[in-house]
Amino acid sequence: MTLPAVLAVALLGLQAAALPGRDDPAILRRACPDYTAYASTPHAPYSGGPLNLPFQRPAEACRTFSSPAVEEVIDDITSRLVDKDLAQLFRNAFPNTLDTTIRWHTNGSTSSGTNSKRDGAQWTGVQTFIVTGDINAEWLRDSTNQLRNYQKLAAKDKSLYSLILGAINTQSEFVIQSPYCNAFQPPALSGIKPEVSTQKDTVHPAYDESFVFECKYELDSLAHFLQLGTEFYENTGSTEFLTDRWYKALETVLKTIDAESQPTFNTHGQFIQNQYTFQRETTIGTETLNLAGVGNPLNSETGLIRSAFRPSDDATILGFFIPPNAMMSVQLQKTAKIIKAAGGPASLVADLQERGTKLAKAVRDHGIVQHPKYGDVYAFEVDGYGSRILMDDANIPSLLSLPYLGFVEKSDTVYKNTRKMITNKASNPYYLVGPQFHGIGGPHIGLENAWPMSLLVQAMTSDDDDEIIGNINLVRNSSLLGLVHESINVTNIKDYTRPWFAWANSVFAQTVLKIAAERPHLIFGSNAKPYIV
Ligand SMILES: *[C@@H]1O[C@H](CO)[C@@H](O)[C@H](O)[C@H]1NC(C)=O
Ligand SMILES: *[C@@H]1O[C@H](CO)[C@@H](O)[C@H](O)[C@H]1NC(C)=O
Ligand SMILES: *[C@@H]1O[C@H](CO)[C@@H](O)[C@H](O)[C@H]1NC(C)=O
């Protein structure tokens, strides 16, 4: 494909005819404002509610993808929502990934889907490249979560089906080539210029900077790659993504987690060099790994898989980081089911199933620890020597999200104990409280900023109407530009980070849709019927 991305993307939306000079990509690019700037200022029409939230969707011609099924859900939900500000937030947030982040989508039936050897990948078949928002790169984790809302609709909307199938294919290529990396450049075939990273990193295994944007090894990135496929199957019943390339990506995931299950010392007490090391020239402790890029020592025989970084992209303190291990155990078992349903190799099905159940047991055996006040709780990180970190961070996977990940029931006793611990200022150092905002934050932004995403996960894992609606309303109150932000200053609700963070908007829309289906009275008024997508 030789067309510059902006034009290609606008043509996909079939809206380009509305703009002058549609054949001139430069004119088109000038006509569509940069969305980071656009999202930072309010636009009409306003909600008419007490907060008078602005309308922040880009002009139709500038949207990066469109789906009639998505527009229908927006109309259905916003016409039922009693609170005009919540309705405006949903109107902006639900389509945010489609509106702003689909940088490249190529339909496999056109010639642009053919192989390119330029970046060593095989961009065969439908492909989709999805940026996180204000950074022009794709995170495996973010993109899986950005698409989560549309999975159900993919069963009835062919364009969404193709979009998500393409995302799985593209992620497969990323994982095959650089399984230790978290964020990726636009595929060479797209013709979009790679983003230049200003960081000075020394990483092993080495990677190609025109392919990879950042190479922090995060176990949850690989679990999210699997999740994109398992959700697609669960929602559409399709196994079309089980291509040779996807199987190769799966094999790469398994090799990577085997390598990262190695202890720091062998049974004779000799040091074993970890396959992955990362060092950054930085003054920020959470942006690099100590001990020459290896990270702190980890004991053998736990059965846990190490993760060098967290889903916040901050370094782990103790590498046996519990939430992504729990998530991986769920995804391995779900993947086994799909391969079985598709009539795939029985030995692989058995291997995945066994890995998944063993990992779940390792999480329980080594991740559950005694707390003096709360009893048995899940630790955030352990090292296999008995050390543990007790805290939670807003990013998913987190301890708070364990039921959302499908690892435990909300009613699980250890989860309930853990939840009490991490939503309390006295027992979670990153539970941040101020006069205007509160919630779980994390070291990524610092000790004065809580994250709306944590309030939304708290709402989605709660059975308490007051907790659910209180959290939704607090997120609404902190979204004064009509979009959900990364973090909010707890003493000044108007002070936020990241005007354009698609993942957070997706989690907001997921929460509203869950309430609409399960507790419609909370948002649609008493006696309202459930709305199920
Ligand atoms: C691919 O494009 C062709 C021609 O525009 C269209 O008929 C077909 O439905 C598209 N396929 C997918 C999967 O979107
Ligand atoms: C949200 O803000 C309104 C004022 O606009 C206030 O009455 C309400 O208590 C706030 N809700 C929460 C949950 O903070
Ligand atoms: C948070 O807001 C307060 C009050 O405006 C301000 O003093 C403080 O510096 C802000 N914190 C950060 C991290 O920006």
From TrEMBL:
UniProt name for this protein: Glycoside hydrolase family 125 protein
MF terms in GO: catalytic activity
Biological processes, Gene Ontology terms: carbohydrate metabolic process
InterPro entries per record: 6-hairpin_glycosidase_sf, 6hp_glycosidase-like_sf, GH125
Record flagged with keyword Signal: yes
Sorted UniProt keywords: Signal
The keyword Signal belongs to this UniProt entry's keyword annotation: yes
SMART domains (UniProt xref): DUF1237
PANTHER family referenced in this protein's UniProt entry, alphabetically: MEIOTICALLY UP-REGULATED GENE 157 PROTEIN
Signal sequence, start to end: 1-18
Residues passing through the membrane, by range: none
